[in-house]
Amino acid sequence: MKAIFSILTTTLIAANIVMATPALSANMDSSSLPPEAKQGNVNFVTGGIGKDEAVVFQRAAKNFPLELEFVMKDKPKDAFLADVNVTIRNHFGEMVLDTTSQGPFLLATLPPGKYDVIADIAGSIKHKVVSINAHEHEMTVLEWAKSDNLNSNE
């Protein structure tokens, strides 16, 4: 009887560890983000260099209304970009964010509304209009063609 009880206890402990592992990984991932910065009423975080850090940003992105990703089109696969100058303006033309991305991801908490996103790397500018809706996630990829003037971080 003691042997059966011991096997049952060990099985339950192992099952609890297996069930808790994804939750622990998710918590560790979001705590691995760099600290958020703040400009005006916008909280944001940038980074994502390297595969592990990129995964952390991709998992955390759903917790932010805006996710920007910066890539250079290349073959056989696209490459991430960093050091992208990013300016975001609201529908009145007022600047709400002006920063330089420390990696290929920028996650930001913006109030609902329409915004102009201007991204500049090595003088090559991309422009996108994004709409932020309450309780929704907007993912925008800004892509540059492969150029000798751009350096990837992959």
- Spatial extent as radius of gyration: 20 Å
Query: Which range best describes the helical content: under 10%, 10-25%, 25-40%, 40-55%, 55-70% or over 70%?
Result: 25-40%
Terminal Cα separation, in Å? 58 Å
- In the CATH hierarchy, what is the architecture of the largest domain at level 2? Sandwich
DSSP strand count: 10
The backbone outline, from C-alpha atoms, is globular
Largest sheet: 6 strands, mixed
CATH first level of the largest domain: which class? Mainly Beta
Structural class: alpha+beta
The average pLDDT score comes to 81
Binned strand content: 35-45%
Structural description of this entry:
Mean pLDDT is 81; it is low at 1-29. With 154 residues, the protein is an alpha+beta fold. It folds into 2 domains: 1-31; 35-145, Immunoglobulin-like (Sandwich), CATH 2.60.40. The protein has helices at residues 2-31, 51-60; strands spanning 37-39, 42-47, 66-73, 79-80, 85-90, 95-100, 105-109, 113-121, 124-132, 138-145. Helix content is 26%, strand content 40%. A hairpin with a 2-residue loop joins strand 8 and strand 9 (124-132). The strands form 2 sheets. Strands 1, 2, 3, 4, 7 and 10 form a 6-stranded mixed sheet that branches. Strands 6-5-8-9 form a 4-stranded antiparallel sheet, with no helix packed on it.
